[in-house]
Amino acid sequence: MKRILLSVMTILFSLGIVFSQSTSQNPMLNIKGVFKTDYLNITKGTPTVLQRIIKSQIPTYNSNSETQAVVITNGIQSGIPINRLDVIELFPENSTSFWQIAQLSNDLISYYDKKGTQEILRQEQKEESDEYLKELTQSQLFYEDAAIEDYLQCLLLSIAPTQLYLHRNTIPQIRILKSPAPDVLMLGNQSLLVSTGLLTTLDTEEELYAILSREVAHEVLDHSIITINKNITRAKRAEFWGSVANGVVAATEEFLYQRYYNYEPGAIFITNDIIQTLINENIINRMGLDYSEKQELEADEYAIKYMEFSGKNKDALASALTKIHAYYKNEHNAKILSKGDIYGSLEKRIKKQGTFSPLPKDQKYLKIMSVVVSFESGMMDYNGKYIASGRLAMKNIKNKMACPNDYIMMANSIMRQSNTTKSNEECINYLNKAEQLSKSPNINIYKLRILLLLRENKHTDVIRQLQHYQELLGTMLQQSQNEKEQQWLVTEQSWVEGLIYRITL
Questions:
Q1: What share of the chain is helix, strand, coil (3-state, %, to 5)?
Q2: What is the pLDDT of residue 441?
């Protein structure tokens, strides 16, 4: 009996078993696997279970590494040096184990052995992220729609792990940015920012799923912390965010000199100057989100693996990246609201994925996002980006999901670019369609009709429309409780009175 116990103890010691362990921060993994090759006295093909990763308090004779993988093989617990974990093939059973394996497969454990978990740096990044969210909130840069947010959060819940190695055991929460660029940012306080531009650029749920998987991959592989360690020069936090706030004030003051012709009850748009002040290369660099090309490729690789693991179309990533690339190419500005050099690596990354089949339109996704498309169209119109506004409105129109405002934006987009009898008739048709869909009188339809009739010198019809417009403005002024809205309505009434006077001279 003593000989058997001695033999077992000898085997356990030879495998690096740890009887005294530090496990306070290390979660239980319990990931099934199989030995890919013979290892000491264990033969290839033997099933095993990876329990956890621990720091050894007893030095092992066969490795300089103190970090051990604790496994159970043939009913016996043993330790394998972390640098020999490649002898085991691990099989994920859910999203959490998939991303835990991703961490183990990318030498992150060795990185933590050298650098530590850098909890102070992580806390600093959380505080930076909190400061950033405060600036975004104060500038009204968040798009608020509970149904859209919940839809995105549910997608994220099906991707993100509930627990990782050593840290970050919380699931990110999604917020939607009012920004035309198709972008997504994972902050250090577990806030995942998704732009309205991304939601309107993509056409399928699987494309969005692939992009969200990329962000989870960046987070799991700790790319932002690794990048921050390379971004050595850092201004003091108060000094940096103070300059950002000053930039927002300057952008706001600049816009006060401009006037928006349209009336959008309840809609809070934002100027492109403010967007560019709050989403730019300096902020991306500070947050550690200016990933290297290697990190971008790594995130692509794991997003594709996760798509396959979850039974989704792996071509969705290439399809999504192609549309993002097309957006930047059409903008003729590689740096506009982009993350570092992401534009420069997009084409190479797409080619690396090989040939792919573009995904067909997803009607369910397009229906859910049609309200975001309408908002984005209005925001582009607000910023004088009439071509972009028309393109977005037409997306809803072609997909047979347009609201009245889409037809109004389409008419205004055409009017800003053309003045022919044919184009003016096209605009009238769009306004008629908007009126048919409207459940109540829409003053924007009246105003654009007035302008179109003026173009065609139909003054009798103009007077009649002006009188209807004037009555509608008066009714709205009596009902309005909003001071700014009242000021706008009074200004419009003055414009109507002046125009009637000039026409009837």
A1: 60, 10, 30
A2: 87
